[in-house]
Protein: TTC37 protein
Amino acid sequence: MSNKEVKAALKSARDAIRNKEYKEALKHCKAVLKQEKNNYNAWVFIGLAAAELEQPDQAKGAYKKAVDLEPNQLLAWQGLANLYEKSDQADVKADLADVYQKLLELYESGDKQKWCDVCNKLVELYQQEKKYLEAAETWQKLIQKKQEDAVEKSELHQLWKKMIKLLKDNTQYQDNKTEQLLLVAFEHALGSADTIPSEDHQNLYKDFIQCLSKFPYEMARLEKACNDMMALYPTVSYPLEVLSLHFVQSGTLSEEALHCFSRLSDMNATSGPGIIGFGIKCLQEKKYKEAVNSLTEGLQKTDQCPAAWYYLAESQMKIHKHRDAVQSCDQALEALGTPVSLGLQWKNRILQLKAEALIKIGDADAAEEAIKALEQIADASSDPMVLAIRGQAYLKKGLVDQASEISQELLLHYPDLAESHALEGFIHYSQKNYEQAERSFLNAIERKAETAEYHQYLGLTYWFMSDETKKDKGKALSQFLKAAKLDSYLGSVFHYLGNYYRDIAGDKSRARGCYKKAFELDETDEESGTAAVDLSVELGDMDSALSILNEVTEKARMGTAKWAWLQRGLYYLRTGQPSKAVADLQAALRADPKDPNCWESLGEAYLSRGSYATALKSFRKASELNPALVYSVYKAAAVEHILGKYKNAITTYQQILETTEEYVPALKGRLGECYLMLARSALENYFDRK
Structure:
């Protein structure tokens, strides 16, 4: 076949393809290849015809042969692109990306529009494959091409915005290079906006700042963006809110941070970050209750801020709300999510604070939970503070040997640490080794004199120490007073001061004040509440006693605060208000249904009210729970007497006399009176000689 015949055959193949006679086209191409096996156009036409005949493997082989022969010719590459685009096979995606890359190279110096079209297709393909870095880099090349062509600023702005959209919603897949491309896109989009300031520009700035806030290594860039937006939009609070949360999360509260909080509060008094910032300022200024209130309010509006939850827990610890602090730590850990870089430091701080709070709760279960929290702290074994907390947790669980082992290790390697000596003191105190405990607490105070707990435990050590200190509690008083001065929220120390003034000094008025203070600080301290009420009664101040009881019972949930219900019930019983007494004593029994004394008091209240049947049941219940309560047995007999059940009453009186011969009320005529009433009843019914 001559060259002329080859050209004629290729023309026939082209015409056949145009007429959709694809099999005819294949015949002409094969004839050409018999003469010229490396004919580029013949292989391209075979690829095209085979593709239309749905023979993708033959088409692919033909196009590949063509590109091997002429790698810089467009036709075969275009054919491959069309073939791969129609395929639904997953494995061709990578090949298609390579084809697009080659087409970009071939269109580079030629058809700019086709170059842009292929560029768009390649970006879309990379998106589908979640190759966001490659997509962004390709889009950036498109933008550079447009910049070289000096396109309108508005078109460039839209291109940068599209690049932002491409990357912004897929941050979970990004690496550092992709993040940088996203941030560069934001900066160019902000700089290329037509109208500044404008609503669109403002929203774009918000998106940029929100994006920056997700990247822990871009804090300087975040601060600059917030400050730049504030300069452009001075009445918009958003950048101040983000900047405030950034300062909170950074863990260091500078003058700049405090100024930011103040400025935000002035602009928007209801802003969550602003209220949180004010709460942290209160914490710094040792206004702990205000700090708790502000941080709680702020977190109701902005709850995904782990540092703010941590500061709330710290504030709650300062006022000894330990269970609340544990809950806040749990919220902080939940908000923290997966810890990275700064997040890991926060996680360690939160877990340590949680462990401290759990230890203060004091029971074995809480101590076990504290140990589990400490186990999650990175490099915990090398941190002496964490070791000291672990030692206290072991001690609370009753594992004295393990606590002692940690104590010895701390004293050996960290002899200048107050916590080392304090742990030793706690161990000695728990073992009633008061002289050794005194030495340890004095050593701890020497190294950290501002810790109220050390003074409190030294005071308790003196209280129980020896015969000499038992007679003279002056040393104990001195330490309790120091502890109270250092920590005015430490309710337990006011309880011990109340004990001193009541039992040693005999100053009931001052003792009552201390107990009342202790109870105000810790509403779960029933012993202090009861003592404050009892002393108020002794001092003739029933108004104060009732005020305390009313406050407790108003807040009490069903089945709680037994002591307050019981005390108020007894007060109503003494003052002739039996119906109120019944209601309160029933509430006390809901908290503790097995208290025989409470049942006995309820019986008295029913009796005073004239409810004899229920009074009888109450007295019988009291004697069932505690058979030694002779008074309840006697009162049951007395009620039966009133109800005319004389035989039952006589039997009960006789039982009392059998067990307690000298029981005066029963001997004093009740039994004889009962016999007399029984005889009178018989006469009235004509049962003579009964």
